[in-house]
Amino acid sequence: MEREIIYVGDPMCSWCWGFSPVLQKIVAQYGETAPMRLVVGGLHAFDTDPMNDEYKARIKHHWEQVAEATGQPFNYAFFERDSFVLDTEPACRASVVVRKLKPDALLSFYERIHKGYYVENTDTTKLETFVEYADKEGIDKNAFAEAFDSEEAKQETINDFTWCQQSGVTGFPTVVLREDDTLAALSVGYQPFESLEPILDAWVSGELSVKKQVEAAQAADADENPPQTTH
Question: Which tens digits make up the pLDDT trace of 121-173?
């Protein structure tokens, strides 16, 4: 049986930044048994309007909530920017490019975007930023820039967004457990590691089967809602 942990997030999603230490622990503890695949969600993809004061206030409130719940640091100097367009597609696409060029560097690269946006007040919508981060991961700058601008990378990023929609993922971060062709959500939204650890322990040991759980739920649903017949 093939197992995989699918992490669905956005590098410019504050709750994903809050979840980052949890994700690191999951990968460190379970990555050998169940490799992690990162799918980008496109939280504010293709936004074109500059952030107004109301939008800034709303986002700032989210940051404050995440900081309180998770202890992750935030740099509120971000909100002094003028005419900033919060488009997360470029950051998502940059992650998709690294996923293809150097998969082993993906989590570290993704974390660099998180820190750049939330702590270092860097513009994580610009190619120049991603080229610098890619270089730090040992990826050739020109190869990265060429891949980033390719139609293939743009389409693959949209494919990730589409997968999220078709899979019913409505919020980030979401962690999905896969057994062969069966998928089941481990968590939707932020959860501390301590809440997820016993479930993951049971899953990797074989004590908990996603397949059996889904089959049981489907059988129960069928019992409650038998097919309607007409006479």
Answer: 999 999 999 999 999 999 999 999 999 999 999 999 999 999 999 988 989 99
Domains and CATH numbers, the chain: 3-224 (3.40.30.10)
DSSP state letters, the chain:
--EEEEEEE-TT-HHHHHHHHHHHHHHHHHTTTS-EEEEE--TTTT--SBP-HHHHHHHHHHHHHHHHHH-----GGGGG-SS-B---HHHHHHHHHHHHH-GGGHHHHHHHHHHHHHTS---TTSHHHHHHHHHHTT--HHHHHHHHTSHHHHHHHHHHHHHHHHHT--SSSEEEEEETTEEEEEEES---HHHHHHHHHHHHHTSS-HHHHHHHHHHHHHHHSPPP---
